[in-house]
């Protein structure tokens, strides 16, 4: 069972929809859905502060993920990590992409979840793997 702490999210997406995104993500990343996750929708000012503090990039961004390692041998529920998403930036990106804010937020939740699972896009090879998986999850929703 996935447990979530949702801060400001329900205003944009239902709890059930977020759970579905995470369950589908679990299916395609071979992740047991026995974790706790914190998801917060925050202001551009807040995310910029975290981006500067943890990534040393002094600009706002759309999504940040902070993952935690699963304790070895642990079969109990564990804390997978935290995600922060900025709806203001998501709204702008949705407009540029020509789709809804809901679809953009779903995109960002998938993206953040994949980062929590250890996927990255720093190299071309990593990016291909991550975005191929991202598209598979998105198309399965």
Would you kindly provide a written description of the structure presented here, covering whatever features stand out?
This protein has one domain (3-139): 3-Layer(aba) Sandwich (Collagenase (Catalytic Domain)). The chain has 141 residues and is of the alpha/beta class. Strands 1-2-4-3 form a four-stranded mixed sheet, with helices on both faces. The chain contains five helices and four strands. The chain has helices spanning 15-29, 44-55, 87-97, 101-116, 124-139; strands at 3-7, 35-41, 63-67, 78-85. Strand 1 (3-7), helix 1 (15-29) and strand 2 (35-41) form a beta-alpha-beta unit. The longest helix has 16 residues, at 101-116. The two termini are 19 Å apart.
